[in-house]
Amino acid sequence: MAAQLDLSQAALRGLSDKLYEKRKTAALEVENVARAILRAGDRAKLDALVSTLVNDFVALPMPNHKKGGLIGLAAVTVALAGTADSKLDDIVPPVLKCFADADQRVRYYACEALYNIAKAARVAFVAHFSDVFDALCKLSADNDPNVQNAAHLLDRLVKDIVTESVEAFDVAKFAPMLRERIGVLNPYVRQFLVGWITALDSVPEIDMLTHLPDILDGLLNMLSDPNREIRQQADGALGDFLAEIRGEGRHAHRGADLGALAAILVGRCGGSGDEFTRVTCINWLREFVSLAGDSPRLVPHFASIIGAVLPCMSRTEAKVRETAARASEELLASTIAAAKQAYGEIESDIKRGLDLPGVLAALKKHAGEGAKGPTRLEALRWYAALCDASPETVRRLSLDAPDDTLDELLASLGHDSDEVVTRAMRVLGSLGAGEEADFDVVVRRVVTVFASDGGDVLERRGSAVVRMLCAELGAERTYCKMASIVREGGLVEGLDEGRELDFAAAMVEAMNLILLTAPECAGMRASLSGLGSSGVADHSQKATGARLFLALYPCWCHSAVSTVALCLLSRAYAHAAHVARSMGDAESEVTVRALVQIDQLVHLIESPVFANLRLRLLEPNSHPDLVRGLYALLMLLPQSDAFRTLHARLGAVPTLALSRLDVNDGEDGGTGTKSGGTGGCLDGGEVDLDALSATYAEVRGRHVRAAEERRVRAMRGRGG
Length: 720
Prior knowledge:
Layout: H1 2-5, H2 9-15, H3 20-40, H4 43-58, H5 63-80, H6 88-97, H7 104-121, H8 129-139, H9 145-164, H10 171-181, H11 187-201, H12 212-222, H13 228-246, H14 258-271, H15 275-290, H16 302-312, H17 318-344, H18 356-367, H19 373-389, H20 391-399, H21 405-411, H22 418-431, H23 436-451, H24 456-473, H25 475-488, H26 497-517, H27 522-528, H28 539-556, H29 560-569, H30 573-582, H31 592-605, H32 611-616, H33 624-636, H34 641-651, H35 655-659, H36 689-719
């Protein structure tokens, strides 16, 4: 064999010698023989030489033979450098096989041999890149430091060869290899992969942005690696990619699939437990939002981005919350602009524009009961802003949708946070500010919430909600609609008449207190008292007040004390006295609840709202029914603070005038149907107080019967 190969026996023995110097000397002879064969053009001898080195040395189990074969193959490659036939297809595979050898010295010399082979072959070596990359990736985690160092040297050389041989390198074939390995947890492999990503991205001719969706998730994983150096390298690589995406000029990010990248970032915002990773994802999304004007394809992803950013505002990490708040603000501005373009211009391409139903669905999810406070507040703020930007579109999508969008908003009415309730009412007010049907839907649903859950929301939040509805939709309009809804009843399926009447009474009591005290209802109070905002009464203003009185009265009959208050406010003193007296006709009417209401009314009589009423007590002969009504309330009260307060007030009535008050002055047969002469809204005579008295008697009769039925059931229960 030696004679056939022109190799001396000493060279063959030297290749398998345990001493490196002897193997090196033998390799020099192999190189010279290969050069001679090349000059002679004897292809058969060249094949035989390579075959001998592979089969008689590298393939044998003895380590020294392997080492000799490796250095011999490297020598052949050096001799063939620059020729058309470099024999790399026969030389590289057996060398790579030695990368997995059990002997660490064999692995080391395999790296050294491949280094020399790559250095000699240069561009031709790129054809074997896939196999070399796979072997280097495994060897980068070798447990021997010398082998690791040798692998690092080889890795740097291969990077240099690839970056200077861009035409021969196929990045499309390389990307799947990265994708398969990017999830590896080994720190050495991670450093190896990041090094390649950074190296290739630095080459202008190689477009790594196109393949970024394949590796982004893996790079984000590395941000939470325990090794600081890996975190820094991954952060640096991500920073470079983001700078390229941001770029300079309108089309700098043309190679990046922002939609695919956004989907990955959205998933990581909610799925990552690492603060730095989450902050990085949010910052990337912020940058994407800023590019939305240049990349319309990103706009449809706004809904999912919203769903990722808003929950981060409730995270425990301050940095995450701050970053999410900034991102939310910028995203809101871009969303509003996109909404105006997509839904405000006939010519706009809606299919490529904002997915407003998707955005509202995301907001609905985070405005509901499962959302944490800051997230819920931000979602409601978004909803309100979108209502302002595209009111009719948002209104139709919210009120006409088959889903439970309105339910989620209504669920916020019972929240413990005042700010949550305020923002929810801001949205509901915007939704109800459209057509009459929209107004009816919103007010009816709010009243239904009050009627549900045993009136808990009404008790805790009723005053605030009603006042905000008045501020958003108009006090008189809101009150008339609510009074009509309460009077109709049937709001909650399965609610018996007794509980429905109890709710109606509680609702009227709440509305009555708001009517008498809230600044939002000042105009209504002026109308009912017969005065306009100017304080001077005229016929049209009294007519307006009369219409309002007629709209409220049938509903107010559910609460006797509230009816008295409404009549006192409207200066229907005769009817007020009649209602007050009638409360003593049935034992069930003088309840603790009614006495508490009278107590509250007495204190309100001492407020500025009823200042005019108190001044009329100076002329009891002119307003005898007022005096009788107040005395009726006094007689209903037990001797309490309220009793003493009202008694003191009536004691201040001029004694002489009171003594001249004839017992029949102002009497109307006991029905309280006389309304003239008080200056109130009912002075015009358009109101049929006989009919109102009949309505009051009918409604109170229902309450009396319901109370009796409740008493009978309770007695039967105790008897059983």
